[in-house]
Design a protein that fits this description.
It comes from Brevibacterium marinum. Belongs to the universal stress protein A family. It holds the Pfam family Usp. 39% of the residues lie in helices and 19% in strands. Strands 3-2-1-4-5-10-9-6-7-8 form a 10-stranded mixed β-sheet, sandwiched between helices. Helix 9 links the parallel strand 9 and strand 10. Helix 3 packs parallel to helix 4. It is elongated.
Amino acid sequence: MTAENLGSDQSSTGLGILVGYDGSELAARALEYGAAEAARRRIALTVVAAYTVPMTIYPNLASMPEENEQEASHSAVKKLLTEAAELLRDHVGPVSYRAERGDAAGVLVHLSADARAAVVGARGRGGFIGRLLGSVSTALPSHSHCPTIVVPGHRSDGPEASVVVAADGSEGGRLAMFTAAEVAASRGSALEIVTVLPAGDEWLYWYPELDLGAEVSDRRRQQLEAALNPELTAVSQQFPELRVGATVSIGNPIDVIAELTRTAQLTVLGTRGRGSFRSALMGSVSHGVLHHAQGPVMVVPG
């Protein structure tokens, strides 16, 4: 990597896979994940390190450092990007490196407008310190212009693992489903479409006119299984070589989906849904899944 790579503007050609890097262990895993995704799609990879310049007041000239805060911060970020370039020394595709001044979440959200997907680690340091699963993990998936992949410590990337997508029949769920199908097809993996039917009192949120009971539970489950058939057909028609399955699970959506991340190659969610997912997907459900996920999670904006 040369100095000219730092901050180079790729907006005219697209940023491809956008990776937020801060030097942490999980950021390195996100970088590896993003590089593999870029290679599979045969598109560019863009690595971003964000920094802020604190406002400092010095009592006198003698106390001022030889290098001002902005220069020091920029130098530290360039060092991080050089480190990232070393980690990517075997990557064969095009890579660009950007040192961006600003809040980590804001920088990534802004750049996501020209990216195919954004990838970040579940926790970080430096520009991302203590923020992922805080403001970055909620702001980026909630406001990103492209799908966001959050990479935790555990990964399930074996070829036998499926791509799993949570669907609820909403438009956002369908968008997530077809995005997941495209990802699965590009990886040669199977796709599992999962609908989660809340148990107990949570049912009344979806269908307040229903009475609780085992008979109602079985009947509604059968209805949802039947409703998934057209979805399976639509995906199979668009991706004829893709292996597709569908299941209906009953339970707490966060618990069910988080458990699926344990073995899924990738778990895909939409930002908006209906029923138990409405306006809560980027709140309690998505935050809960991201917080407890043991495998990569992709959140698709609706």
